[in-house]
Automatic annotation (TrEMBL):
One of its GO terms (molecular function) is methylated-DNA-[protein]-cysteine S-methyltransferase activity. This is Methylated-DNA--protein-cysteine methyltransferase. The active site is at 130 (nucleophile). It comes from Planotetraspora thailandica. It is found in: Cytoplasm. The keyword Methyltransferase applies.
Length: 166
């Protein structure tokens, strides 16, 4: 039996976001022009009904009222990717870590390059905060949504948290 996939597009300060659900559970959040964005035809039929809570939490995030997402998600990837994506969800709002620190956190200190590749294939951007991972010197590197969006997300989170990221 094949999975039922649906999608909707919502506006955001980062531009239009395509939300994809598999069997009614969030499985993708993609930006326009995003690297590793699956083909549109894989997103299923347009249907906004599975996304009410996702849209509400995204709106609260962009309004500065939410710093943690609490949503059911289906992240499809290799066991290693799953491990990296789980670690991403533990990076606090308003903070950044390096790819090396992330590799250390998952117990794979020599796997910095693989961590970067897994980070880049994160299927649920923003909510699974891959934008909070920076280069070894703290510089902005490697964001599938583009470095401009990464900077805007980090600046926004820094402003909300009152901290400094760099």
């Amino acid at each position: 039996m094949s999975a039922d996939r649906t999608h909707t597009v919502v506006d955001s300060p980062m531009g239009p976001l395509t939300l994809v659900a598999t069997d009614g559970v969030l499985a993708g959040l993609y930006m326009e022009g995003q690297r590793h964005r699956p083909p549109q035809e894989t997103f299923g039929a347009p249907d906004a009904s599975p996304f009410a809570e996702v849209v509400e939490q995204l709106a609260a995030y962009f309004a500065g009222r939410r710093t943690v997402f609490d949503l059911p998600m289906t992240l499809t990837g290799t066991p290693f990717q799953q491990h990296v994506w789980a670690a991403l969800r533990r990076i606090p709002h308003g903070e950044t870590i390096t790819y090396g620190q992330l590799a250390d956190q998952i117990g794979r200190p020599a796997a910095v390059r693989a961590v970067g590749l897994a980070n880049g294939k994160n299927p649920i951007g923003i909510i699974v905060p891959c934008h909070r991972v920076v280069g070894s010197t703290g510089g902005l590197v490697g964001y599938g949504g583009g470095l401009d969006r990464k900077r805007r997300l980090l600046d926004f989170e820094r402003e909300i948290s009152g901290g400094t990221l760099f």
